[in-house]
Write a structure and sequence with these properties.
There is one protein chain. By secondary structure, this protein is of the alpha+beta class. The protein contains twelve helices and 13 strands. Helix 3 packs antiparallel against helix 4, helix 3 runs antiparallel to helix 6 and helix 4 runs antiparallel to helix 5. The longest helix is centred in the N-terminal third of the chain and has 62 residues. The N and C termini lie far apart (101 Å).
């Protein structure tokens, strides 16, 4: 009888662990099994069993943790991709909307073709960005279709205007309807982007964003864009997109600065004196930290925090201040933006910047940034731009940027006006209400400048824009939309 029990026990052991006598059960279970006679194991075997078991759990746990980390990493990459795609879409649609709005008020053939081409390229960029968004439920189908049709129509209209020289009444109506639709979409995207930037909407909530985006037609009151959509198979030439943070604020600074031509190189000590005067500091408060040899070789000086924490650059040639900045004073703003503009005027006047006129300004926190352009013979010289930053806490100038001024400023021989104001005005869209006029010199895409009539106009919707008509040919050269907010005005 006893012999039969031993045999049964051995068979049980053979069933659970046929090779080394170690089963896969945990230590408490092993104890119970051993007490019941199911498993026969030495003390050493039990220790080895628990050790191997712990190691097995550690390995499995390690793989689990590693898998979790890898999944989290992939999720982060996906979210970043979604966020980037959404930002690209918002930017492209904003720029497409701006092009369509400009096209509404443009009458000259050359400028209209350029604007329509820009709009086509922005619609293509928007569609490419749409491809980076997940749209499993097809919520963005109508939006994708609208962007595609808008691009197709702009391409068609570009060829039509190039052949005929202008738009028909029906084409204008279609262009206006598209402009309204894309503007509504742009507003919705901007709201979504603001929510995402504020953390109220994350890429994980993109389905919610898509649902809101899918309703833009209802919320924005989309218009019927007509039935003239046509697709023409050809490639468009690449055209650079120009978006400004102020009228003509992007300068051609990669050429030899005109203001420095014929001037002599200055010593470090002389440059230090210039820098100290510009900042209202003593020379002892400034330390030389760089001696750059870039496109505009300059000495770089800084002051410690007790002396304002400034950084300033003075050009090797001519000893001109090209830029300086410091952190704004902490605290609440006590000055208005208009008072900040007056502080900036006074600073420029006292530091040799004669005949400067402010164009537009923007406030960021407790700092106002003002763009100034030079004036000659009552003509505004937009290429000669200086940016000044003023703290609204204490009225101190905390930033200056004048690389564009150094690159372009000189006494010009201005052409005589061949096309008078009244004749130039006739080339403007009848939808615009002209509010003011002056002469202005504007830069072109090349290294040229054009004398223009600048018309400040009101749009039918109550917005504002600037239209530039060539004072020699009478053709429209450029249209800029004024984006007016509580923080100031930008031009696009």
């Amino acid at each position: 009888m006893i012999k039969r029990k031993d045999t049964e026990r051995k068979r049980s052991v053979s069933f659970f662990a046929p090779q080394n006598g170690v089963t896969v059960w945990s230590a408490p279970i092993l104890d119970r099994l051993c007490k019941k006679g199911v498993v026969v194991m030495s003390k050493k075997g039990r220790v080895l069993c628990v050790t191997f078991l712990a190691a097995a759990f550690a390995v499995v746990g390690g793989f689990a943790v590693r898998g979790h980390v890898r999944a989290a990493h992939y999720q982060m990459l996906l979210e970043n991709q979604q966020r980037h795609a959404f930002g690209e879409l918002t930017t492209a649609v904003d720029e497409l909307s701006a092009a369509l709005q400009k096209g509404r008020f443009t009458t000259s053939q050359g400028l209209l073709v350029s604007i329509l081409t820009e709009g086509y390229e922005r619609s293509e960029a928007a569609q490419a960005a749409m491809g980076g968004l997940s749209d499993a439920n097809g919520a963005l189908e109508e939006t994708t279709a609208l962007l595609g049709k808008t691009g197709d129509y702009l391409y068609y209209l570009t060829g039509s205007v190039a052949r005929k020289g202008s738009c028909t009444t029906e084409e204008r109506e279609t262009l206006n309807a598209l402009a309204e639709n894309i503007l509504a979409l742009s507003v919705m995207l901007d709201e979504l982007q603001a929510d995402m930037n504020a953390g109220a909407l994350t890429p994980q909530d993109l389905v919610q964003a898509e649902s809101r985006l899918a309703r833009w037609r209802e919320e924005g009151g989309a218009q019927n864009a007509g039935s003239i959509y046509q697709t023409v198979e050809a490639d468009l030439p690449e055209m650079p997109a120009l978006v400004y943070d102020g009228p003509f604020s992007e300068h051609l600074t990669d050429r030899k600065p005109k203001m420095l031509e014929g001037t002599e190189a200055v010593s470090t000590q002389f440059a230090r004196a210039i820098a100290a005067d510009a900042l209202g500091l003593t020379q002892e408060q400034l330390t030389l930290i760089s001696n750059g040899k870039g496109e505009l070789p300059s000495y770089g000086f800084e002051s410690d925090e007790a002396s304002g924490g400034y950084y300033i650059e003075v050009t090797h040639q001519g000893g001109q201040v090209s830029t300086f900045f410091r952190s704004a004073t902490e605290g609440e703003a006590v000055l208005t933006a208009e008072e900040g503009v007056e502080k900036a005027k006074g600073y420029l006047s006292s530091h040799g910047f004669d005949a400067m006129e402010p164009s537009y300004w923007m406030t960021y926190g407790n700092v106002v940034t003002i763009s100034f352009a030079a004036v000659q013979d009552n003509v505004l010289l937009y290429p000669d731009l200086v940016k000044v930053e003023v703290s609204l806490v204490d009225g101190r100038v905390v930033g200056l940027e004048c690389a564009g001024y150094l690159a372009n400023h000189c006494v010009r021989t201005l052409e005589k006006v061949s096309v008078p104001e009244r004749a130039a005005q006739e080339n403007l869209s009848t939808a615009l209400n002209i509010q003011s006029h002056r002469l202005a010199l504007i830069p072109t895409r090349g290294e040229y400048e054009v004398l223009c009539h600048e018309f400040a106009c009101e749009t039918p919707e109550g917005g504002h824009c600037l239209v530039y008509v060539n004072a020699q040919s009478g053709q429209e050269e450029k249209v800029l939309l004024l984006l007016e907010t509580e923080n100031g005005t930008l031009a696009q």
